């Protein structure tokens, strides 16, 4: 996998004091937001869909269950990511309809610290490993040509959370995710294999409930 992330996110802890420990316990999170995918080169074994692809925005959403020990949090998540295909300059002509999407199961480790100087607002940074149970790219020509597979990836997370009281809090976070360049096999009437880098960024929002 190619390391293209802004690595300084991981260094923010070096100069920031940790948040005061809170009561530990289980929690759940609901997550939704805006996802983008960088422009990529599509490599197709038969050449039909090979070319430079531009991707637009899309949706990301899912949920997580975790355990909070104070500064450290450990959670498992399920998250769907999608980005629309704006244009692919393929050998057979331009394609302007399609998308690149995935469904992943992740394990994250997050560290909370006090960046805002108030007990109600908490910032956090962390990362996780993700298994993409399905990663799928579609090209509409106008019939649908689909290629899919599975892959592992990793993500970096930077966020902030505000405590509303009564066990509820809201959060906003930035994620950078990379699954390298997976090989995707043809489905249905499509032919060959497709290889496209899968690196995206997301701005997510949601709510958390503590048990």
Tally of separate helices: 0
Taking all Cα atoms into account, the compactness measure Rg is 19 Å
State the distance separating the first and last CA atoms. Answer: 38 Å
Structural class: mainly beta
* H and E order: EEEEEEEEEEEEE
Give the averaged pLDDT, no decimals: 89
Shape: elongated
Q: Percent of residues in beta strands?
A: over 45%
Low-pLDDT stretches are 5-22
Number of separate strands: 13
Residue share in helices? under 10%
Query: Main β-sheet, in a few words?
Result: 13 strands, antiparallel
Keyword list:
elongated; 13-stranded antiparallel sheet; mainly beta
Descriptive account of the structure:
- The protein has 211 residues and is mainly β.
- 0% of the residues lie in helices and 69% in strands.
- The chain contains no helices and 13 strands.
- It has strands at residues 25-37, 40-44, 51-55, 57-68, 72-90, 93-95, 98-113, 121-140, 144-165, 168-178, 183-186, 193-195, 199-210.
- The two termini are 38 Å apart.
What can be said about this structure in brief?
0% of the residues lie in helices and 69% in strands. It has 211 residues and is mainly β.
Compile the SSE list and pairings:
Elements (H helix, E strand, L loop, with lengths): L24 E13 L2 E5 L6 E5 L1 E12 L3 E19 L2 E3 L2 E16 L7 E20 L3 E22 L2 E11 L4 E4 L6 E3 L3 E12 L1
């Amino acid at each position: 996998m190619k390391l293209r992330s802004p690595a300084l996110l991981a260094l923010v802890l070096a100069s920031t004091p940790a948040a005061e420990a809170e009561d530990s316990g289980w929690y759940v999170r609901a997550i939704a937001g805006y996802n983008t995918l960088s422009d990529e080169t599509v490599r197709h074994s038969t050449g039909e869909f090979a070319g430079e692809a531009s991707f637009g925005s899309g949706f990301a959403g899912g949920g997580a269950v975790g355990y909070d020990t104070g500064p450290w949090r450990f959670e498992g998540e399920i998250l769907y990511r999608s980005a629309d295909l704006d244009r692919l300059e393929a050998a057979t002509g331009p394609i302007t309809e399609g998308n690149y999407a995935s469904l992943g199961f992740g394990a994250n480790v997050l560290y909370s610290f006090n960046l805002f100087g108030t007990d109600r607002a908490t910032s956090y940074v962390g990362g996780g490993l993700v298994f993409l149970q399905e990663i799928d790219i579609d090209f509409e020509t106008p019939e649908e040509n689909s290629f899919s597979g599975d892959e592992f990836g990793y993500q970096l997370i930077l966020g902030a959370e505000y405590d509303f009281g009564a066990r509820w809090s809201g959060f906003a976070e930035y994620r950078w995710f990379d699954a390298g360049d997976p090989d995707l096999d043809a489905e249905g009437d499509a032919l060959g294999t497709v290889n496209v880098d899968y690196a995206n960024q997301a701005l997510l929002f949601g709510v958390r409930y503590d048990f």
